[in-house]
Amino acid sequence: MPLTEATENDIAEVSRQLGRPARDIAAIAARCVCGNPLVVQTAPRLSNGEPFPTMYYLTHPAATAAVSTLEASGFMAELQAKLSEDADLADAYRRAHAQYLAERDELEALLGLDVPEIDGISAGGMPTRVKCLHALIGHSLAAGPGVNPIGDQALAACTWQPTKCVCDHRPTN
Asked: Staple partner for 117: which of 4, 51, 107, 130, CB 3.0–4.6 Å?
């Protein structure tokens, strides 16, 4: 999926979605069908100096609520069991991890950053665990279908879907 530059309106919308000021947004990684941000691409080092390995961050309130419900249902344990039992799925998940790291390396280079503290660390438990569906679905929405199989399966199981707008207001851009 193509990244888009974060406008002032996007940053204001993400801040509204999060209920706090948005920080260190490098780009918008996925958008609602109405144009509002769904997923942001965050700098690997925050402006306060803190390393931040979660490059793709799900921000949309309806999406985050639905994913929280999915996590609470025990679905992460189901996905972890599948990951342990299916060698092809495990291989695809390792490839998703490698792709995530390569994209973050590109972002570090683009931003002129060096963040050795997070070398080899991606998000969501990749490459061997299922730890955070928010991060994995964020990655799937940013990268598109077929890149992160665990994120794709979690998105398919989620009650929220990116094909239908459930924003409580339309964008102003």
From this structure: 51
